Amino acid sequence: MTPLAGVRPHYAQPVHLYIAMVYSGKCWWYIQGSDNTPMNSKRPYKHILKNLLHEQATQIIPLLLPGYRVEQVLDVELPELKSTEIEGPPGKLEQGLVGLVLPEATVLKAYKTEWIEHSGKFERAYRVQNAETDSPAYLLIEFQTEREDADLPRRLLRNYATVNRYAAEDLEQEDDDVEHEHEHESTIMNPGYYVYPAVLCPFPQAVPAPIRDTFQGEVMLAFNFMILGLWEKDAREFLNTHESATYFLLPAMKNADATLLGLAIEEAPETVHASD
Question: Which residue of 73, 176, 178, 194 shows the fewest CB atoms closer than 10 Å?
Fold first, then answer.
């Protein structure tokens, strides 16, 4: 068997060779590369990881997040904002509007922004039950599959805003009885539901930081999210669940040596066959 130590995240020195083992349906896939591998050749692993989680979220999420149970899988359409530069220098109206907020600013360019409601692009989210609350809850997971992904937090924020809007509309459409309406009565400060953003991270050396944008000493935007660090999970515990849906995550966990991964490879086909 090819050594799988390259994916062990707790090494002190940078690892130049990585081998990812993922399980899909009836077989195991090995994806190998190095720090010199072109970026586009790394991206298929992101798609495989995301697809495997989506296809088996009902089994995986309760193990990654004890206390959570998937009620419904949702494909939420993502709107797009298309900005077009307005030709010519900014007018007095644009300068005046900006001057109300930033009196000393000079407007260099003005843009026209179009909201495209139906983009044809979707993001997977989950309606979940959470042991900590009786209110409706939604879970959104983003994936850190590259050590350097500076756009990840803002990508998650964009998707969070869309799922949050979807959740509000979803609950409005439900045929609630009087008792249910009272239980989840919403206010401006408490919308009556929760949306949990999370990042699934295999790399402890590059955990994405929350967004905290400041301007002139004031916080203008703050966005926090849960970190699901795979290196903190114990591969032995996941193997003992005999839930083969999670086995593609084992190489990034602690105590995932070649012997354990070999047991997982041997067990997975038997588990699939038994479920069939």
Answer: 178
